[in-house]
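Bumping my old thread because nobody answered last time. Still need a sequence for this structure:
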């Protein structure tokens, strides 16, 4: 089945009141499925960090819910025609290259349950699908956590499972479960998580079957069509209409792949907006760099890029008329007809050839969010947020006090970019509802103490609207262990826009201020850390928006009082001279006026529209900005 959006009904008019009921029902079922997973799973990554998603899809594989992204049903329907499915079946897959672009790396395990309803002849047929996928602790491979930073082949990254029937009419496939758990370093957690996800999806399937039983298949499917039509119409009218017709080009970069020395791994978008056919967008990735040797590739060129369309579309919501309206706009399959994607030939970062490694594909798929934001910003005079890098994987592993192996892995967030109307948000995560691990839980389960968890001062990019701050976390080890990290933006910063400055990059230091102080690469599998040493993690700050010299003194003073900006940072980044004590700082307005005037006089007037920070020059051969950084 292709990724085209097929209507379920023709000539059936949806009752507008029932549309509202069905839309709310779908959202409720999706939330109930996610809640069930969270309450019954076992691994910290799923239960505590909430790094998983649920989604509801119709029988034509279109995603109906829009609160969050999810994987695709396409590979399941490809290998198991819906006509052969039975109530109680649950399908499983995690194979990146056989997922039609819905799975990015092997730790993301996906389960899918079909929904059945009786037709006019009393025969049960598939009418929808409930799906869940999440990032699990370990699915094998060469390092704990299944994310080897120096992998050169997907075979090093863990167990690949193409779509299989994991439950057959309510009966689990014990042989398949034995194989998967045998290949995991955390077999008990894996088994419990899969059981939780399968049971939750089957529960969701029962809930949806009740909806069809109550209102009938024709009425419910007419509502499905209406829900998606509303999204299409809303985005065309309120969002795409804000982009002037024309062609715009921008690019950004990943900085390393774990194998080669750091360099600029280019990710480029040429965006074309037309006035015909309702103002469709064409997103052309031509110019994206070659497939990397290391694991930063993302297999996106499947099913006409339908997963990428839904992944990238939330960025476009920033063009809505107000922040409140942005929050109201869901992204479901209704956005798919509005975007055409054009991919370069096989062999690029976005079109890797099997068996290219992909476990750190966040370096590409997250960067593409920023590239789309940047290229749209060029079209709308910067009315888009500055850059963010709000996901990276850090953790430690070793043996606990009882000699048992443990793995603590955390997905720490960072600061989001400043916006044309407000500062960026502090310590957010790109995965909705995800969170850092509670310190109390971590200390009770793992042999370390969390000595500090707070905001990284001065990490947000300076601007009229400041970038959000990243985390600063200090972990003191009680036993020898190994530290691991899968992170980008340790050289290149989150870019600022329209005069805003770049945020501070990611940084890890072990034993800061101690006799063995040392920095750690952002891509690390097994960095030794000894009992008594502290691991200091500082995550990225978002880029700033607008000229920092236009930030009101009162806002800078508030940031100093709240320990978001240091006294030194206020002067260096904002031209604001702060006097007084730490508890009672005051602005020296005369000195600040003079300083800001001197800074303005030094400007040439030819500064680029984007500020990438000092790290770009290191990787570009000394160039302070890219050719595409000017309007």
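Sorry it took so long. Here it is:
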């Amino acid at each position: 089945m292709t990724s085209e959006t097929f209507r379920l009904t023709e000539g059936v008019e949806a009752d507008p009141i029932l549309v509202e009921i069905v839309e709310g029902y779908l959202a409720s079922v999706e939330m109930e499925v996610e809640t069930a997973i969270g309450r019954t799973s076992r691994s910290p990554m799923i239960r505590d960090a909430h790094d998983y998603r649920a989604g509801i899809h119709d029988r034509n594989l279109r995603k109906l819910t829009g609160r969050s992204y999810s994987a695709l049903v396409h590979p399941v329907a490809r290998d198991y025609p819906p006509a052969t499915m039975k109530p109680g079946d649950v399908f499983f897959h995690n194979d990146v290259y056989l997922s039609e672009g819905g799975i990015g790396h092997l730790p993301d395990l996906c389960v899918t349950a079909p929904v059945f309803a009786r037709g006019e002849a009393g025969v049960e047929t598939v009418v929808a699908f409930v799906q869940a996928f999440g990032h699990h602790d370990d699915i094998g491979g060469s390092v704990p956590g299944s994310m080897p930073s120096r992998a050169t082949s997907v075979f090093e990254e863990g167990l690949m499972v193409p779509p299989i029937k994991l439950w057959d009419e309510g009966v689990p496939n014990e042989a398949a479960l034995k194989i998967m758990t045998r290949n995991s370093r955390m077999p008990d957690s894996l088994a419990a998580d899969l059981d939780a996800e399968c049971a939750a999806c089957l529960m969701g399937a029962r809930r949806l079957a009740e909806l069809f039983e109550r209102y009938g298949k024709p009425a419910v499917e007419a509502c499905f069509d209406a829900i998606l039509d509303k999204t299409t119409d809303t985005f065309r009218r309120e969002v795409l209409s804000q982009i002037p017709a024309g062609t715009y080009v921008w690019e950004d970069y990943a900085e390393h792949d774990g194998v080669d020395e750091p360099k600029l791994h280019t990710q480029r978008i040429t965006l074309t907006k037309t006035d015909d056919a309702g103002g469709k967008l064409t997103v052309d990735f031509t110019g994206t760099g070659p497939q990397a040797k290391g694991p930063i590739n993302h297999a996106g060129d499947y099913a006409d890029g339908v997963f990428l369309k839904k992944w990238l579309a939330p960025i476009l919501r920033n063009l809505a008329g107000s922040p409140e309206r942005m929050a109201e706009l869901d992204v479901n399959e209704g956005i798919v007809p509005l975007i055409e994607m054009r991919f370069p030939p096989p062999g690029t970062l976005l079109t890797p050839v099997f068996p290219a490694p992909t476990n750190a594909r966040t370096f590409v798929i997250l960067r593409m969010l920023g590239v789309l934001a940047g290229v749209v910003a060029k079209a709308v005079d910067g009315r888009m947020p500055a850059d963010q890098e709000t996901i990276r994987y850090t953790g430690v592993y070793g043996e606990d006090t009882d000699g048992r192996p443990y793995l603590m892995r955390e997905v720490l967030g960072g600061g989001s970019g400043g916006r044309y109307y407000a500062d960026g948000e502090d310590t957010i995560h790109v995965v909705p509802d995800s969170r850092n691990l509670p310190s109390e839980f971590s200390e009770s389960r793992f042999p370390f103490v969390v000595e500090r968890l707070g905001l990284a001062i001065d990490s947000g990019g300076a601007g009229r609207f400041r970038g959000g701050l990243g985390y600063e976390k200090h972990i003191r080890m009680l036993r020898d262990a190994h530290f691991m990290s899968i992170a980008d933006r340790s050289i290149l910063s989150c870019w600022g826009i329209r005069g805003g400055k770049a945020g501070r990059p990611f940084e890890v230091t072990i034993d800061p201020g101690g006799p063995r102080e040392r920095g750690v690469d952002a891509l690390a599998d097994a960095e030794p850390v000894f009992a008594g040493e502290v691991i200091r993690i500082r995550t990225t700050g978002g880029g700033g928006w607008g000229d920092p010299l236009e930030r009101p003194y009162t806002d800078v003073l508030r940031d100093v009082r709240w320990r978001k900006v240091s006294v030194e940072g206020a002067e260096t980044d904002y031209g604001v001279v702060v006097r007084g004590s730490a508890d009672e700082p005051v602005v020296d307005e005369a000195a600040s006026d003079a300083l800001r005037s001197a800074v303005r006089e030094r400007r040439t007037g030819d500064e680029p529209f984007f500020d990438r920070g000092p790290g770009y020059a290191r990787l570009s051969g000394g160039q302070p900005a890219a050719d595409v950084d000017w309007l």
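The mean pLDDT is 95. Let me know if any region looks off to you.
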